Structure formats: C-alpha cells, structure tokens
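User: Could you check the structure of this?
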Amino acid sequence: MQPIIKNPHLWNRRDILRACSTGFGWMAFNGLQAIQKAAGSSARPAPHFAPRARSVIFCYMSGGVSHVDSFDPKPRLQRDHGKPMPVRIERTQFNNNGNIFASPFEFRQWGQSGIPVSSMFPHVAESVDELAVIRSMTTTVNEHAQGNYAFHTGFPFMGHPSAGAWVNYGLGSENENLPGFVVLQSGGAAVPHGGVGLFSNGYLPARFQASLIQADSNPAVPNIRPAQSRQVQKHRLDLVSGLDRHFQDSMTLDHDPGIEAAIRNYETAFQMQNAVPELVDLSAESEATRKLYGLDHPNGVTAAYAHQCLLARRLVERGVRFIELSCLPEKLGGGQAPNPWDQHGNLESGHSNMSLQVDQPIGALLKDLKSRGLLDSTLVVWAGEFGRTPFSQGSNGRDHNPYGFSIWMAGGGVKGGTVYGQTDDLGYHVVENKVTPYDLWATVLHLMGLDHEKLTYRHAGRDLRLTDVHGRVITPIIS
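Assistant: Sure, the predicted structure tokens are below.
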C-alpha cells in the first residue's frame, strides 16, 4: 500500500495505520471511531418507555437540613428534651455530642392529606398535597464533599457523571439553543463542597455537562454576549470549527472528547447568545408573579433565590431537561458558604434564615407550575446530602446524621399527599422502607421514561450507570 505522505518523518499515527499491514489497522480504527461517534451523536435518543415527566428541577439544600425540624416531627424529642440519648450514639463529624434536643420549630398538619410540616416551610406546606415526603432516606457517608458527590453521581468521589448529565445523555435536549443540563446560581451562591465536579459529565461525552447560569446577573453567562453581527460570528465559528476538526483528524489516533467538546461548546455558545438574554429577561412577567415568587422581597437572599425558581420555570417551558438550583449563604454578604444549611451551632437562627431564603420561592414554583399545567410533566426534587442528629452538638446545634432523614418529590408522576418510610421515635435511624440515593435516581429516571439498568455507558471496559449495581424504583410513591 502506498504511503499517503512520502516523507516518513511527517507521518502521524493515522498515516502509520493506513500504511502498515495493508491498512487493516486503519479499518479497525474507523470501526471503533464510528461506534464512539454514535455514542456521542447529537440525535435525540428515545426513552425506554412512556415518560411521566419531561424535566427535573433539583432544589439542592446543601449542608444538610434537619429532618426532625422540617418534615419528620418527633414528639419524643419534646418530651425527653435534655435527657441523655437512650441508644448508642454513632460516630459524628465532630463527636461533641450532647443530650436529646427538642425542635425549636412548631409542626402542624396541612392540606387534605394532613401531612405535618414545621413552621420553617409555611409556603411549601400550602402545596403539601402535591408532595411525596420520603422520611427514610439514608446515605453511607457523613462528610459534605462525599455526601454531595454521592447524591449527585451515586459515588462518594469525583470522576462520575452527575445525575443531570445522565438525564441529558439518556434523553437529549428539547431545545437546540439551550443546554440540556443547567445549574442556576444567584446572589453569590457558592458551589457545594466538592466543586464543579458535582455537575460534571464524568466519562460521558463532554456536551452533557452542566452549564452554569447566573439568574440575577448581566450577562447571565460570562462571555456569552453578541459581538458584531451574527453573520460575522457564524463565519468565525465555522473557521474555528474547521481548524479544530482538521487538527483532530491529523494529530490524534483516537477520538479526542476534549476537542469535540470545544467544537460543540462554540456552537452552543453561538445559539445561547440570543436564547439566554431572552431567558433571563423577566420584564414580561406579571406583577402578581413577581410578588408570588418574592422577586422584590426585602430579604436580599430570598429575592436572589426567587430569581432561580422563576428562571427554573422558564427553562422548563423551553424544554431544558434538568435544572439544579443553588442555595445562597445564610446571610447576604456572609462570604463563602458552600454548605449553608450546616448549623453545628445556633440551629434555630441558621435554619430560620435558610428557610426564609427558600420557602416562598419554592412554594411559588410549585403553585406556578401547577397553575400553568406544567407540574404534571415536571418532577421537582428537594433534598440535601444528609440529615441532622436528634441530640445536640454543643448546646444548640446538630451534627450530621446519614442514618435517616427526609427529602420530598412533587409532580411528574409522583403520588402527592403521601409519606413513605419511617425513622425511629427519636428520628435517628430508619426503621421502615430504607431509601438510598440509588433508589432516588432509579425513581427519577423511571419517571423520565428511562430504565436505570439500561441507561449505561461503556467506560474502562465496564457498562457504568448512575445507580452503579444498585437501585430500585420506589413504586409506592408513583401515581
């Protein structure tokens, strides 16, 4: 076979494959490349079965909300306040363990279902009949970064795709001008401990990673702004794309996902230059909607979080598959606070500030989605990385508790007004219907029309998945 390049010093690895062994190596490489390109194809894949939900909104409460102060009331804590714990105490993060600590918040029953919710969440409680409260969530880790990774990726360490990336990979985007996986921030919100790897594509093709959008900033995405005319920018984009593809073809033996991601990022950014300014322009929203969400709330962090919630609804309307919301520091201007629900001391004040931040906006999001006919097709998930202990840390805080805590889901095929699972009478350990993050994501994928055991990606010789080798769909909470 004649070499394509006469000077062997100028040959690259592709030329060698073409020239040696009558080109059989080149044929094998082309076959492998075709498989890999198919895996990263931009064609929208089909769900495994009819979906109940089209989009997910993930309200992540980083830091660990106390379940015994929010959605899992325990009268025994009130009765035995100040007494020593009657059971063995597991190791905690700081091992500064005190006695039984009664909730400083009052609980009352709400809605036709009569589900009790604490005074921290009166706005969310107005939609309690839409919620499926899971009181038996557990995790295997007791530290923030590991807990955040376990909840986002199914694994307590970096390198694996986030749940949003898996949903984006499994279903594709419904809007060619916006990313399929968006993480919203506002008001100086910090990325939870673990960093932006929590939103990573991992070993999936790079175009499935999250795009971060600042809900209350201009520009909402740095560097995504028009310059000169779209025609000029399109010519520049085509030139850069052609150079990148030529470089990839000539310099690498295998498909380089980094170069492919760069090309796709240019294309997505070009489309976003028009889509994002229109997305974040809230001038067309009514005064009633602004008031409902609290966009002009006197508490700055409430107003900032309200921007995220309203933008989440607008992203759902535009077909974005997975939207994650970010908590702000406990107080506006409070500095870096990647885990703002983490009150190891002064829990009453800290949790009150955090609930003031998120309660009205999330309650408004649920009401607004329902009034627009979007809640049936939008799955809202509210969760943190673990709960908190029924005994005090020091005098008035609570340490981490991964052995039993509460989350909730709403809309998107969920049976509202239900409670699933149970902790013991102290709120310490799960005693009925234990749930893991694998079960949570198996259920989310199921509601999105995806079989969690079939949604796999071949990497390092294994067919990997969001739920690893675990996970079961929580069928009792599905309507």
